[in-house]
Amino acid sequence: MDVRGQIAVVTGAGSGLGEATARHLAAQGARVAVFDANETAAQAVAQDIDGLSVFVDVTDQTAVEAGFAKTLSTFGDAPRIVVNCAGVALGARVVGREGKMSFDVFEKTLKVNLFGTYNVMSHGVRHMLDLPVQQDGERGVVINTASIAYEDGQFGQTAYAASKGAVAAMCLPAARELAASAVRVVAIAPGLFGTPMMQSLPDEVTDKITGDVPFPARLGDPREYGLMVEHIVTNPYLNGTTIRLDGALRLPPR
């Protein structure tokens, strides 16, 4: 599928990987709807890329449907590209000090990372199915964000790893289900990227983290995530798989 001229929805597009993806797709000629729970950030990105700013809580079905309706009415058609980047990275022990439980962290993490992804994917696909198949035989593509933590999650990442593992696990069955409708589903499992969350860490912590990355020995550039999204969109044989984007990094236990 050619990116140019397509309508794309990107969640979590007010910052980090989502912002980089929205900017990259727009630079390739897509019309981008910037979905984010931070309305100010979404507006800033949308203004820069001549896109559409949409305030959306991905865990809220009504809000997500309203976001797609606004996209449809503004751009005149449904999106053929949906990229899920919205997420949280909350750390907590299963049982912490003095017996403190962490079910609240587990519940919130799955609600945003897993339920939110499924929610946006479901609504996005429902609108895609109203579109005609293109000359290349495709109708649309959904790209979800997992994490390398789904395979080698670290100490304190039980909730996060579980949520991202579920995102990876639902990729193949979703792709098989939607194959008859000419819609592809692919997941990206990023490693350590230079997002605002990582950039807020002290230099010595960042240096230790990047020292574990074989090559290139640095944090990933969010623009490289956008490049992977573009490649998935343009490569019609990529389907039903989770792609690690991590510089060959394998996370140590701690």
From TrEMBL:
InterPro entries: NAD(P)-bd_dom_sf (IPR036291), Sc_DH/Rdtase_CS (IPR020904), SDR_fam (IPR002347). GO terms for molecular function: oxidoreductase activity. Keywords: Oxidoreductase. Belongs to the short-chain dehydrogenases/reductases (SDR) family. This is SDR family NAD(P)-dependent oxidoreductase.
